[in-house]
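Q: Sequence in, structure out?
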Amino acid sequence: MKIYRIVVAIAAVFFVLTSFEQEKVTTIFMIGDSTMANKDISGGQKERGWGMALQCCFDDLIRIDNHAVNGRSSLSFINEKRWDKVLEQMKPGDYVIIQFGHNDEKPNPKRHTDPGSTFDYNLAKFVRETREKGGIPILMNAVVRRNFAKKTPKNDDDEALRQTTFADGPQVTESDSLVDTHGLYAIAPRDVAQRMHVHFVDANQITHQLEQGLGVEQSKKLHMWFKPGEEPSVPDGRQDNTHYNVYGAHVVARLLADALCKEVPVLSKYRVDYDYAVDAKGRGDFMDVQSAVDAIGEDKDVTVQILGGEWTKPRLSKKSRIKFVLREGATWK
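A: Exactly. Output:
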């Protein structure tokens, strides 16, 4: 009987430890610029960073902690102590996705770095200090701009695009070929990754293939590219070939999530697929459940993730083919 009790006790301890290990949440920190960042969604604004949508691609045992900020370069991210805040929160086994370039290219001395020199140094600093904390660094190069112009327009500040209207956009002649705007800034992260034996995802190539494959007109649908009257949040329209809208952010997030899982296979077991997502914080395709149902229609076999919060059940017919998946503690009222 005594031996039996010991065996039962050991089994119980093993079960508790195993359960704890199974429920351990791993954080993926993200550092970068506006193409990755969380956005202000007040007033129905539609701009999104691809990192904002990434939580939809992984289950609840992965926590996406997005520290990317509009307008930041590798230099300003360090000088503003934003990197220090990430290091303070990092635990052994966490991941850090590092993606800069768009603003390192700019002439502003508070942002500017040089590839092969200061840009590489900052990327190496992120890698080295992540490893010192027991974290796992993942370098990415910059996503492309939608630039089909035969002559690339001068662009000293992507952030200024938010203050423009459609009429302010440059009058350019476009060709069928996407033209690179990053140069050596897209190559430097790969070089650092090779020198330091770091995971690397070629986000530049992935998004180049995406935009080139869609072509001149269809690629506009990824971006904050709207004619006057097309989108209520920007009534005067906008020609922004840098920043993503809701749809574009989710398309890019899916592609980069797949690339992450290929580069770091252990992440594959946390990868989830979805047709649509609902989230009050703006991480999903829709902000509320009924809007999702109304837009999708009930005659399609679709999966809709609902991230967090308490929700009123939508009006559905008996023939509805929509499947809801509640995540992050989401509940029905």
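The CA atoms of residues 6 and 12 lie 10 Å apart.
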